[in-house]
Specification:
With about 180 residues, the chain is an alpha/beta fold. The chain has one domain: Rossmann fold (3-Layer(aba) Sandwich). Helices cover about 30% and strands about 20% of the residues. The protein has 7 helices and 8 strands. The protein has helices at about 1-15, 40-50, 65-70, 80-85, 105-110, 125-130, 150; strands spanning about 20-25, 55-60, 75, 90, 115-120, 135, 155-160, 175. It has a 6-stranded parallel β-sheet. The chain has a two-stranded antiparallel ribbon with strand order 7-8. Helix 6 links the parallel strand 5 (about 115-120) and strand 6. Helix 1 (about 1-15) crosses helix 2 (about 40-50). The longest helix has 14 residues, at about 1-15.
Amino acid sequence: MRRAEQFVAKVKKELWVLRGKSLAIWGLAFKPDTDDVRFAPALNIAKRLLAEGAHIRAYDPQAMQKAKDELPEITYCLSPQEAAQNADAILILTEWAEFRRPDWANLAKTVAHPLVIDGRNLYPPDELAAHGFQYVCIGKPHMPRLPSPSAAKEYVVSPVMASCASPLSAPTSLAPVQPQS
C-alpha cells in the first residue's frame, strides 16, 4: 500500500486538487505481458484517485476485463491515445512494450495538460520535454515543464543536474541555448 500512497501523493503534488481531474492510466496489470491484476499497485492507485474525486480513463493491453470486476466505475479505453484524450495527466503504471514509443507530438495535441507521471521510469526526460511535456518520475527529481513545444527547440539537454536520468546515463537537465555571437 505504501507505494500506492506515495504515487497518489506525487499526483496530488503536481495537480493540487484531484476532484474533477481527468487522469489517463496506462497499465493495470501487476506486470507486463499478463492479465493478472491480483496485488496490482495500479488498482490500489486507481481506487485512491477515485476516492479523491478524479475521473479515470484507463488502458491495458490484456488486463482490462479483469480490472473491470474490481473497478467498474472507471472508463476503459481501446488505446493509450484514447485514454489520454483531454487528460490532466498521463499516469504510467505498468511498463508494457507498447508504451515505450508513444507519439508524443500527437499526444501533446490530445491531452488537456502535458504532464506525465511515470511510475516505471520508462522515458528519457528530454524526449518528453522536446514535446512540451512535464515529466515526473518516481524516486528521482522531475523534469521542469517548458513553456511550449516550440520553446523546447530553444533548449538543450546539458549534464548539469539529475532529472529522471537513467542510472546508466549521465544526469541531465534543460538549459537555455546561448545565442551564438
